[in-house]
């Protein structure tokens, strides 16, 4: 018992002894200018020219959930985020990563306008008129044929979300390639390609059921690149309804 | 007591491990063993075994699996000596396995310094054997001699300072009484070399610096002091020709990788093949594939010694499908270019001139905004093995069709830190894919291809059974070496970044590949 207690004390001591990683980002005008240039080349495509967000989350905010401190921000820029579309910056030197991080932090000092609209009403549209939950899921509620939206507000900007509602083909998310497959025996299958290699292909249909085919049994695979099974809500929802629906989606920040 | 010992004696008595130089030189006399990185000195990675062949490969099944304990890239190319297999495992492990059952005989582990920096994982591609000693290059740039019977350390010598970015990932090559070994660290502004060590004592016999020093021929191809940090590493095993006593070894990219502004000139001997005298380390000739490389197109992959007929004349060649997208055949006696052509899509050169020098196109360099070029950073092929079959007289390469957007960035050298000068981004506008391609060994002309869904990062092995073994993603497969038809495949469940080998044990042929974090060993039912 004494030994166990001693070990607990040891562990507590050693934890306390772990030095906090202090990171100082460069802050000269030249560093920020270089960081801005690097941001334009490597980051703006997804995060928007001013970090307003797009395919990637908005960075023009004081607190970044994936990068609560500067050490973590350097890690995220340098190594990417596993399991997401965020790649590591293999093309940047350590110093350039630091300059980019400094520029990203400077973006957070700008006050951005809140997303307009009524999120409560937007939630009703999502559930009723929009019938979004047939395909999308939030915290386990809904379909699985389209991306989970539980933290979509943290991953996509309001502008991007609005565009996706009125023009779903504009940017189809990775991992959601729509395919039409015909087997040699004449069976036809529509769904999302979930995996493929030289020898086989796996597809999930809109009920969530997965199918696997050997390519030797397949006559044709039509890969509908850039196509989305999602209907456009242009003309289906009013401008105010779209605004409220976007406000609701933008409020969804936690994957849990 | 004697009775007790016999009671516990194994069913199969292993021969005493002893591999003198002559056994490696005459490797074709014992095709059931795999005594050096590419089986023999030619680099062909061709197995003369034919028990597994086009007629029965469909019945290939797993005989045993060896799992590694630590998760990192598993690039080992085993050697097999009289029934014992020797492999390397991440992070810094050498293991001896009974090749019949897969049971471990011993393991050696070297601790890794916590401040070790590696560009591309704690990977290693294998060991060399000479006599009853194994030789291993550790990730922290030591050459270590182990007793092949027990794994006990005989000697351990540092080759270079890992804190400056030096490391070792390739298998050494035993030649006569010396151990030849390259080094890695091309993204850290190191100065490349090939070393030879006395096999018995570990004393360094010679060092060939792949970047000439001040006053030496070739140094003028570097700007000012840029040669000191110019990389030209040597991280894949070379080959040897006993008849002419010539060592052939490839070199890597100049550093910084993607920003050539700070090192104008051809940057000798980066991206080259170097012919050396293994007794002295003196250069016989060199051939530079990519002068002033700005795309990280190392030429370190194992070259292949093959003979061919050119305009009716027999030629001794050294051939290579280079990372820069061109296939080359070179006269291995003189180092002169014979023939070459692209074997994948390439957009950076209009072709090769009469001497084999690429004719670089304008605007085909990395830029701050990004420049789209083929092939990608990974190249048309890479470190993994190509193979040559004397039976089909074809060269087989695992080709990668993929473009990339190359960026130029900062090139400020700081000791031990990454010295890239930019990088690349994947280009997805044109779907990347891979292919096993069979090429005419002299000209590089395509004879057949087997298309792969995605680019592959694994090696090939041809066999006398009329097969070419290869991998794609997590699948290991066998193709008909004559026609390229798929004859067998196996899902390994983890990405394959390794070269296959084959060996014979108890009159049964086995084929081996590392997939994910497991080593799979196959034999016929």
Domains of chain B, number: 1
Low-pLDDT parts of chain B are 1-13
* CATH fold group of the largest domain in chain A: Cytochrome Bc1 Complex, Chain D, domain 2
Please tell me the total number of domains of chain A.
Answer: 3
Distance between the termini of chain B: 40 Å
Q: What is the H level of CATH, i.e. the homologous superfamily of chain B?
A: Quinoprotein alcohol dehydrogenase-like superfamily
Descriptors for this entry?
heterodimer, A: 256 residues, alpha+beta, Cytochrome Bc1 Complex, Chain D, domain 2, SH3 type barrels, 3 domains, 9 helices, 7 strands, 36% helix, disordered N terminus, B: 525 residues, mainly beta, Methanol Dehydrogenase, Chain A, five-stranded mixed sheet, four-stranded antiparallel sheet
Describe this structure in words.
The complex is a heterodimer of chains A (256) and B (525). Chain A has 256 residues and is an alpha+beta fold. In chain A, 36% of the residues lie in helices and 14% in strands. In chain A, the strands form 2 sheets. Chain A has a 5-stranded antiparallel sheet, with no helix packed on it. A two-stranded antiparallel sheet of chain A has the order 1-2. Chain A is globular. Chain A starts with a helix and ends in a 6-residue tail after the last helix. Chain B is mainly beta and 525 residues long. Chain B is built from 2 helices and 38 strands. Chain B has helices spanning 2-7, 21-25, and strands at 46-47, 60-67, 79-81, 84-89, 93-98, 104-109, 128-130, 133-137, 142-147, 153-158, 173-175, 178-181, 193-198, 204-209, 239-241, 246-250, 272-276, 283-288, 304-310, 313-321, 326-331, 337-342, 349-352, 358-360, 371-373, 387-389, 394-401, 404-408, 422-426, 433-440, 446-452, 461-463, 467-472, 475-480, 486-491, 501-505, 508-515, 518-524. Chain B is globular, with a radius of gyration of 22 Å. Chain B starts with a helix and ends with a strand. Mean pLDDT of chain B is 95; it is low at 1-13.
């Amino acid at each position: 018992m004494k030994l166990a207690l001693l070990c607990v004390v040891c562990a507590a001591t050693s934890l306390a002894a772990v030095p906090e990683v202090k990171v100082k980002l460069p802050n000269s005008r030249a560093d920020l200018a270089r960081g801005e240039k690097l941001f334009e080349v490597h980051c703006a495509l997804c995060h928007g020219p001013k970090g307003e967000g797009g395919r990637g989350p908005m960075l023009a905010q004081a607190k970044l959930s994936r990068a609560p401190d500067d050490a973590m921000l350097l890690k995220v820029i340098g190594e990417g985020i596993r399991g997401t579309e965020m790649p590591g910056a293999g093309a940047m030197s350590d110093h350039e990563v630091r300059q980019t991080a400094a520029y990203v932090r400077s973006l957070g000092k700008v006050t951005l306008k809140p997303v307009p609209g009524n999120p409560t009403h937007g939630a009703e549209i999502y559930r009723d008129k929009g019938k979004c939950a047939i395909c999308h899921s939030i915290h386990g509620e809904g379909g699985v044929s389209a991306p989970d939206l539980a933290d979509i507000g943290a991953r996509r900007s309001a502008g991007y979300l609005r565009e996706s509602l009125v023009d779903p083909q504009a940017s189809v998310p990775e991992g959601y390639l729509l395919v039409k497959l015909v087997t040699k025996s004449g069976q036809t299958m529509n769904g999302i390609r979930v995996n493929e290699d030289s020898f086989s292909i796996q597809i999930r249909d809109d009920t969530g059921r997965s199918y696997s085919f050997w390519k030797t049994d397949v006559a044709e695979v039509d890969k509908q690149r850039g196509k989305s099974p999602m209907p456009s809500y242009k003309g289906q929802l009013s401008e105010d309804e779209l605004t409220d629906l976007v406000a609701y989606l933008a409020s969804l920040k936690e994957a849990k | 007591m004697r009775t007790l010992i016999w009671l516990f004696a194994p069913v199969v008595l292993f021969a005493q491990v002893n591999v003198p130089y002559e056994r490696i030189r005459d490797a074709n006399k014992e095709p059931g063993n795999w005594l050096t990185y590419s089986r023999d000195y030619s680099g062909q990675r061709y197995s003369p075994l034919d028990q597994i062949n086009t007629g029965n490969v469909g019945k290939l099944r797993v005989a045993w699996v060896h799992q590694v304990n630590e998760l990192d890239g598993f690039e080992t190319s085993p050697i097999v000596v009289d029934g014992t297999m020797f492999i390397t495992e991440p992070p810094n492990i050498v293991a001896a396995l009974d090749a019949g059952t897969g049971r471990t005989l011993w393991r050696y582990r070297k601790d890794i310094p916590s401040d070790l920096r590696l560009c591309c994982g704690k990977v290693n591609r294998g060991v060399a054997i000479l006599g009853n000693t194994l030789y291993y290059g550790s990730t922290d740039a030591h050459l270590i001699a182990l007793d092949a019977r027990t794994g006990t350390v005989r000697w351990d010598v540092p080759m270079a300072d890992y804190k400056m970015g030096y490391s070792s990932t390739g298998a050494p090559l035993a030649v006569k009484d010396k151990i030849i070994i390259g080094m890695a660290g091309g993204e850290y502004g190191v100065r490349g070399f090939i070393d030879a060590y006395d096999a018995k004592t570990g004393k360094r016999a010679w060092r060939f610096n792949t970047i000439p020093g001040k006053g030496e021929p070739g140094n003028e191809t570097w700007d000012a002091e840029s040669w000191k940090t110019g990389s030209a590493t040597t991280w894949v095993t070379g080959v040897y020709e006993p008849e002419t006593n010539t060592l052939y070894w490839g070199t890597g990219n100049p550093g910084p990788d993607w920003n050539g502004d700070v090192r104008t000139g051809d940057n000798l001997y980066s991206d080259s093949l170097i012919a050396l005298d293994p007794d002295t380390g003196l250069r016989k000739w060199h051939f530079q594939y990519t002068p002033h490389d700005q795309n990280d197109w190392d030429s370190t992959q194992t070259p292949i010694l093959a003979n061919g007929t050119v305009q009716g004349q027999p030629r001794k060649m050294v051939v290579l499908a280079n990372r820069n997208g061109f296939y080359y055949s070179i006269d291995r006696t003189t180092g002169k270019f014979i023939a070459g052509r692209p074997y994948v899509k390439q957009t950076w050169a209009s072709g090769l001139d009469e001497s084999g020098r690429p004719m670089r196109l304008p605007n085909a360099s990395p830029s701050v905004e990004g420049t789209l070029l083929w092939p990608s950073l990974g190249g048309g092929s890479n470190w993994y093995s190509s193979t040559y079959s004397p039976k089909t007289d074809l060269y087989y390469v695992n080709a990668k069709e993929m473009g990339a957007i190359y960026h130029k960035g900062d090139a400020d050298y700081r000791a031990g830190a990454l010295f890239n000068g930019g990088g690349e981004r994947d280009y997805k506008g044109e779907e990347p894919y891979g292919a096993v391609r069979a090429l005419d060994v002299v000209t590089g002309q395509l004879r057949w291809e087997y298309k792969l869904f995605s680019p592959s990062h694994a090696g090939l092995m041809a066999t006398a059974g009329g097969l070419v073994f290869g991998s794609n993603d997590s699948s290991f497969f066998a193709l008909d070496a004559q026609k390229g038809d798929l004859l067998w495949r196996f899902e390994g469940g983890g990405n394959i970044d390794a070269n296959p080998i084959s060996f014979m044990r108890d009159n049964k042929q086995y084929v081996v590949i590392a997939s994910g974090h497991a080593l799979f060993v196959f034999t016929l039912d």
